[in-house]
Amino acid sequence: MQLYRNYFYVVTCFIVVTCYVANASNVLDVSGKTFSRGTDRGLAYAKFKAHKFSYLNITSIASDYVMKGSECGLACVNIPSCFSLNLATLQDVIGKMLCELLPSDMYNNSDKFVASQSHHHFSIMNDGTCAAQYEKNSYVCVCGKGYTGKHCKIDIDECAEDSHSCDFKAHCINTVGSYLCTSLTASSILSGRDLDNYLGVLRSYLSPVLMNSSRSVFVRCWQAKTDGWAAATFHKNCDGKGPTVTLILVNSYIFGGYTNVSWNATGNQCRYVPADKAFIFSLNNSRDAPVKLYQYGDSTPAMYDCFRYGPSFGGGDIRVTSDAVNKSDSYTHCGHTYTAPPGYSRHANCPFFAGSYRFSPTDIEVFYEQLI
């Protein structure tokens, strides 16, 4: 056993005649429980979870010095009254660690479970929050969100059970422990406004560039208002996802951009990236005239992919800085990479999109394209 694993299994043969060897998955099948110990065909087993740098401060039923952590686990398995253990983090001068076998666990003694730089505590392993019921040789678990069942091992299909919060026009896709709402109707920016009109316009802009018109859906990977405004959060959530569409809200102004190339601000890089199908757009602007703006050429810098910036387009057409909500240094500049809006000249300050040249966004959303 490696001492600093998050968990370990202990299996020991205690009947000499007929002794079987089991791997970790068999141990789970044999026990039928995620926390407890038991016997089967000459095997004793237990599944422990590590709580690093923690100590359960209760009276031990036994203690000794061991060379390996697995020796401590084996000792606990073979004592029926042992339900958890404390193991020293450091070895003594002869290479041994103090092992303390305990008659209870952290779930029944939470007031005595403390931080410790000198010990790790090993207790029952669960996917939910469980409490042992020793008198009944059982336990009760409160499962984490998205899971159910005695052992919190069963994924809830929110889509099949209709327990999701997707818009009725959206497509729900079940995932392990959660679900995805795959539609631009999930947009918080568009919701509560002229949703059908804006969606109709945006879909007409996106239709020619979709990977597959019958199978393409859009999944939100970042919403600044709920996920945080840091550029690093945007890149963590959306880099490498493939084609994306960005929606930017500034008061009542709505604009953004599409790119068929993944965002990928690796390391501390800042670079201009070509994307032959990229475009920018405005849904609500100073002239109340939705518009789609194409690139002047195919090899132009369609995206500015930089770890210090949020989703930014062109050679300066749309720039979104990190933590943009608290600053006014994001900006729009007409006609660098993309054609200038009607009535505006190239390489000029551009209040058309946000009402002013520099802006502080109200919210930003990025959706990536996925095939279903």
From TrEMBL:
Disulfide bonds listed in the record: C143-C152
CDD domains: EGF_CA
Pfam family, one: TLD
Protein name in the entry: Fibropellin-1
Keyword terms: Disulfide bond, EGF-like domain
TLDc domain segment(s): 194-370
SUPFAM superfamilies: EGF/Laminin
Domain of life of the organism encoding this protein: Eukaryota
Organism: Stylophora pistillata (Smooth cauliflower coral)
Gene Ontology MF terms: calcium ion binding
Stretches assigned to the EGF-like domain: 115-153
Gene3D superfamilies: Laminin (2.10.25.10)
InterPro entries given in the database record: EGF, EGF_Ca-bd_CS, NOTCH1_EGF-like, TLDc_dom
